[in-house]
Amino acid sequence: MTIDFDYKGVPHTLDPWSASQDRYDSMVYRRVGNSGLILPAISLGLWYNFGDNRPFDIQREVLRHAFDHGITHFDLANNYGPPYGSAEENFGRMMRSDFRPYRHELTISSKAGWDMWPGPNGQLGSRGYLLSSLEDSLRRLSIDYVDIFYSHRFDPATPLEETIGALATAVQLGHARYVGISSYSAEHTAEAKEIADRAGIPLVIHQPSYSLLNRWIESGLTEQLRSAGMGAISFTALAQGLLTDRYATEDAADIDRATSRPTFADDAVTDEVLAKIRGLKTIAAARGQSLAQMALAWVLRDPVVASTLIGASSVAQLDENLGALDNLDFSDDELRSIDEYATEAGIDLWRESSDL
Ligand SMILES: NC(=O)c1ccc[n+]([C@@H]2O[C@H](COP(=O)([O-])OP(=O)(O)OC[C@H]3O[C@@H](n4cnc5c(N)ncnc54)[C@H](OP(=O)(O)O)[C@@H]3O)[C@@H](O)[C@H]2O)c1
């Protein structure tokens, strides 16, 4: 047993841990566009379940289990928590205690764009905000570079040259290996890619919301990514937990969420939405999958979506979601049946507000 001091000087005990020798046996890996970046088909996001609101022992159990099952990609952002910054601090603690020997096997991402600190310079896409935020993220994460640094949302006021120029500086400083953009429209993605190409930096990945109930990327973005040689990693493929068996079978008010989410309101679960998820659950059952498993397999059906993020508050959820990999293929008949229910459900919070 050794003692670790975090960057604020707080002591923690460390128990020794080694990753499973079999960790690469069952995961599927996919290439991001035409780049050299290879991600697990299922990646783990740390938005809501890894802040100071959750016991560290559970976080550690989920993170160890993920890596032991081939999840090499962990997705963070400056303001994941709650409180803001705490998910990066907790992941930094994992880096020091468990993951340090495996640093080169890991793909760790962070982002800046949403609100992080008070005042006009604590969000959006200015050079000052992005680069200061990345320095803070590296300190919290206890690493000296991230594998991917994202502009978390399009900034309609700052010139795109400045935002992408800040990503270029992050690469040139050695603070980021690849860069990405999140929730940018097809048009702004094309502009960002042109600027990045001129600067000679690897803008290889786009992180959009995408699910059975939110298909906006199919109207132009996926084509744009393909033609630019970029790839995508989808977020909220489970619609923040809605596309799971429990919402198809239980009353929303009776469901005990691990973390309350200001971004998810039970009243979004209308009768119309419930009819869609019950219809989809029936199709999933005929495929031998849970609704969550089919929802993840479905976003991966187009290879331009290299990986899908998931959130998980327990090892049981993680295991169920990893089970999606057992059946990633869809027949034409299945896709046609899914299309009847997989229609816009008004649950995407990111598209309108982030790309004006
Ligand atoms: N770029 C962006 O702007 C952006 C925005 C949002 C998210 N993201 C990224 O995407 C990641 C995933 O987002 P998300 O957490 O909203 O995605 P999600 O995968 O759609 O939802 C995850 C939540 O669903 C529930 N869940 C997961 N698996 C389940 C299962 N098998 N059965 C029942 N419930 C299950 C859990 O809720 P409970 O916690 O209640 O158990 C879990 O926290 C984030 O961590 C982040 O990395 C990026």
Secondary structure: elements and pairs:
Elements (H helix, E strand, L loop, with lengths): L1 E4 L5 E4 L14 E3 L6 E3 L1 E4 L10 H13 L4 E3 L10 H14 L7 E6 L14 H15 L4 E6 L8 H13 L3 E7 L3 H14 L3 E5 L13 H8 L2 E4 L10 H5 L21 H16 L4 H9 L5 E6 L4 H8 L9 H10 L9 H4 L2
Parallel strand pairs: 5-6, 5-12, 6-7, 7-8, 8-9, 9-10, 10-11, 11-12
Antiparallel strand pairs: 1-2, 3-4
Helix pairs in contact: 2-3, 3-4, 4-5, 5-6, 8-9, 8-11
Write up this protein.
The structure is a single chain. The chain is of the alpha/beta class. The protein contains twelve helices and twelve strands. The chain has helices at residues 56-68, 86-99, 127-141, 160-172, 186-199, 221-228, 245-249, 271-286, 291-299, 315-322, 332-341, 351-354, and strands spanning 2-5, 11-14, 29-31, 38-40, 42-45, 73-75, 107-112, 146-151, 176-182, 203-207, 231-234, 305-310. β6, α2 and β7 (107-112) form a beta-alpha-beta unit. α2 (86-99) crosses α3. It is globular and about 50 Å long. Bound molecules: NADP nicotinamide-adenine-dinucleotide phosphate. Residues 45-49, 75, 152, 182-183, 207, 235-241, 244, 246, 257-259, 292, 309-313, 317, 320-321, 350 line the site of NADP nicotinamide-adenine-dinucleotide phosphate. NADP nicotinamide-adenine-dinucleotide phosphate (NAP) is lined by residues 45-49, 75, 152, 182-183, 207, 235-241, 244, 246, 257-259, 292, 309-313, 317, 320-321, 350.
Structural class: alpha/beta
Bound small-molecule species: NADP nicotinamide-adenine-dinucleotide phosphate
- The number of helices is 12
Number of strands: 12
* Helix content, binned percent: 25-40%
Main beta-sheet annotation: 8 strands, parallel, barrel
CA radius of gyration: 20 Å
